[in-house]
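Intended use. Records like the one below are meant for learning the mapping from a protein sequence to its folded structure. Do not use them to infer anything beyond what is encoded.
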Amino acid sequence: MAPKSPPFSSLLPKNLIFHQTLILTITFFAYASLHASRKPPSIVKSVLGPEISINGTNPLQDSTFSQLGLGWPPFNGTLGTHRLGELDLAFLSSYAIGMFFSGHFADTTDLRLFLSSGMLLSAVFTVAFGCGYWFSIHSFLYFVLVQIFCGVFQSTGWPSVIAVVGNWFGKSKRGLIMGVWTSHTSIGNIMGSVVASSMLKYGWGWSFFWPGFFLFLIGIIVYLFLVVSPELIGLKIPSEIELNSIEGYDHGEVERLGLLNESKDSKSLEEVKPLEQEGMDSTNAIGFIEAWKLPGVASFAICLFFSKLVAYTFLYWLPFYIRHTAVAGVHLSHETAGMLSTIFDFGGVLGGVLAGLISDKLEARAITSVSFLLLSVPSLVLYRVYGSTSMFTNNILMFLSGSLVNGPYALITTAVAADLGTQTAIRGNSRALATVTAIIDGTGSIGAAIGPLLVGYISTSGWNTVFAMLIASIFIAALSLIPVVKSEITERKSRIQMNGTAH
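Structure written out for the chain above:
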């Protein structure tokens, strides 16, 4: 389906900077709202599932706990954490499977309609989960089915927004631009956590209603205003050489905003035509198998599998962990635990920006990712060992862990995916970005599905086992990037030698 201009695009000024700012804003809030709607399940876990008993014993090992009448059936028994983990699996596995298909669909359909439809349907099923509270639904199958549909429709989001941003922005300063822009993930998590936590006192159903309502409103805005590519409204992203030849064009400002693309075509703006090389139409979607064979795609996909496993374990279980782990000898309330978990996401905002900035400076995405991964290991060890000593220590170590864990995750899902989806090996195919993005994030989402499920089972053996699993995953993620790191080091040495020869 050929993309069409949104209903109100004719009312907007045809200015490149204006539209790029608008695109960043719309896609930022679009994906932030999607992530906000994913947070309620993690916030209400401690309400639905096993509660801390009055005498301080571990309810997960208390055979009489199911008689206390706390929690929400079928999640409040001795197998409650298992059911909660299976609920996470229902959402994340359907999300991962849907991601592989969504990437190809996003490359072959109208991104605006595809994204807005997915958002609106995701909003409906987010609210449907909350309806379980108002209608006293206790069927495990109901909640599983709702999460499956929610996961499928949410999978339309990431390939769509990353493809739209890729259409509007070139490669220069991509790491920094994407690092700032991808903070939508952490901002969405924070928004969802704050709203869901603050609504708990009115009933856990409201923790789902308001994030779903906000997602629905943003979906309507996407349908009305999102322009998926500059060509739809007669604009063109100029190349660096073209900008140098335009009298009065502020090249420094354009470069600072990351508006330059990879094209080195020296034709004038009027002469530039869509890229077609070696008979490949630039508007055709790349094949799924062909995309897997692109340089670096498999390595980064495997890395994201384990990186996202760690990140999503915190996303779905951190409030539960905080609630069930005494800080300075005190167990925090449901609301406080949910609010406190946002510190991890605040750290994620900083981590995403730093990873993008550093990778731009070094021109080495893999080296940056591996550095963050390895540094996250001691931070997690410190958080587990000393996080319960005081609230101050807990907050500092949680913030540090969030920065280091989310840094490579944010970098790979944005700048790396965009780099790989627009590399020269694709020979000018401009419709490959969503497919490559879906492969990388879809593979990562499989890890995201496995991590929270495992926690639901192994947390009953103690949280040290959970942290050991997370650390092992981080090491595997770092090892998977060794081939790419070697390539970056070799390329860097070649550049230094060439610069030395030139001088």
